[in-house]
Amino acid sequence: MEQQDCDFSPMKLQVKENLRQIVQKMNQSIQSMDNEDYCLLGTFEQIKERFAWVESQAASFYLMCYLSPYTDKFIDLSVTVKNLSERRQGALIVIQREDSLANLLTPGTPIGAALTSPLLESIFFTGSPLHDGAVLIQSNQIVSAANVLPLSNARIGEKKLGTRHRAAIGLTERSDALVLVVSEETGKASFALNGRLYPIHSVE
């Protein structure tokens, strides 16, 4: 990830503490292996889940850092993603940064309104004619909706990505834009930057 003028020390302290807890759990498991009745499978799953939680927690901090120079509406974006995630409503939100996106997007429907959480959520309401495409954000404005993004052929391991995630990666492979994604299938939120996806634990 690129560097920004952010104070990462609070996040790093929190991550260190979580990693210490994971190491402690691993050491306990090593000691318990002398017991013939001890099963490692449950422990592996717990450690895996904890690592994933720490990763998404750190990603959420970076997300705030990367958005703050380009929009004052981080809270509105946070609330929107949280609410859509809880309702499992798919969403694709592009935040333009330095690079022009004019030649990378297939234009959708102009909006030209101030960015608010209620308005942004209404665009992605199931059944809305605009909900399938991407919303474009510039500074504190919703510029347009139902935009079509270039798709990536990237894969994450053996996992096949859905159209929204391929679109998010595709645009960020070609520009410095940051793209928020909510999965309609799982409700999980993530963001794409520089052609990579990062899970979001909470963007509150």
TrEMBL record:
Coiled coil: none annotated. It is an enzyme of class 2 (transferase). It holds the Pfam family CdaS_N. Its EC number is 2.7.7.85. GO terms for biological process: cAMP biosynthetic process. It catalyses: 2 ATP = 3',3'-c-di-AMP + 2 diphosphate. Residues 56-204 form the DAC domain. One of its GO terms (molecular function) is adenylate cyclase activity. InterPro entries: CdaS, CdaS_N, DAC_CdaS-like, DisA, DNA_integrity_DisA_N_sf, DNA_integrity_scan_DisA_N. Keywords: ATP-binding, Cell membrane, Membrane, Nucleotide-binding, Nucleotidyltransferase, Transferase, Transmembrane, Transmembrane helix. Probably oligomerizes. HAMAP family: DacB. Belongs to the adenylate cyclase family. DacB/CdaS subfamily. NCBIfam families: c-di-AMP_CdaS. Catalyzes the condensation of 2 ATP molecules into cyclic di-AMP (c-di-AMP), a second messenger used to regulate differing processes in different bacteria. This is Diadenylate cyclase. The lineage of its organism: Bacteria, Bacillati, Bacillota, Bacilli, Bacillales. The gene is dacB.
